Request: fold
Amino acid sequence: MNEHNINGNRFFNQDCVTGSRTHIEDGSVDLIITDPPYGINGDTLHKHYYRDEGYVIDGYVEVPAEKYSEFSHSWINEAERILKPNGQIYIVSGYTNLYYVLEALRATKLKEINHIIWKYNFGVFTSAKYVSSHYHILYYAKPGKGKKTFNTESRYGLTEQKEDGGSLNYEDREDVWVINREYKPGQVKNKNELPTELLIKMIQYSSNQGDLVCDLFMGGFTTAKVAIGLGRKFVGFEISKSIFEQKITDIESIKPGYLYETLRVPEANTRHNQGKGWDAADVKALLKRYNALRNANCSKKDAIAMLSDEFGRGRWAIERQLKKNHAEIDESQQLKLID
Ligand SMILES: C[S@@+](CC[C@H](N)C(=O)[O-])C[C@H]1O[C@@H](n2cnc3c(N)ncnc32)[C@H](O)[C@@H]1O
Reply:
């Protein structure tokens, strides 16, 4: 076992199950982001996908398909143990063995928050069927008292709108993420390296500065780089000696917080229209958005909360206006779309 402590961040060249049992206390991790091997002969993927492996780091350790269920149970049980109450986990999974990952999650007390689809570019070309270009991201939390961290406005304020009037915040929080893989010509990288943008998104929404982020399958150390770059603490494992030795050297040069200056600053959310009268255009816009949200299966309560933020007014004011204008907020009645 080879261990490095770099500015208080810990990296272990070890199997993550044995390693976390030895080095990570119960209930000590705020957020796990991890991308286990997929059990599809990932160490020989290039043979199937005609990839140029010259630029792919050697030493990827795969899990035999017949061991995938047992493997998933053992590391997911460990993940449950090390998470704090209300701590969260994002697991990136292909679909071949998704069943086993879901089965292992369901055997724990972890609760599903979202099943996210990540759509990427450069899906493997096929001519006689659809091109596969997505992964699953299973977003779960450990039950606990109080609230889990979810920084709703960390990227887009609730009142920020697109040019067509739609909400940027709503769009960013939809559960289909379209994020491209990074094209790094000439650079050596891990198989399945996750894009920085994807990691930034998970870390911004689900953790705060100083929180402890863990990756049980580090690969190219991308989770580590982004977590440290966003001022979080990090602990992680990689079983492959050659991958570990090649990638640990990158970490020395990562400056804590270096990614802050790249982040978009969301607009502050204020009740800027509180006390102001409603004109016909305001009412029309309110009814249109309310109906759109309800048609998208948003509950009445959540719709009113969102509209309160979007229109810069209190919730009672929104509800009063909806009632007054006969937008049907009674579940039993039909929604009337006003355009
Ligand atoms: C899909 S890759 C991770 C890629 C990573 N997310 C990135 O962005 O580069 C999975 C990694 O887990 C490693 N691995 C396999 N079994 C492991 C185990 N039991 N403990 C720790 N690492 C393991 C593999 O060698 C591989 O590098």
Residues 15-16, 35, 37, 60-61, 190, 192-194, 217, 219-220, 222, 237-240, 243 surround S-adenosylmethionine (CB under 6 Å).
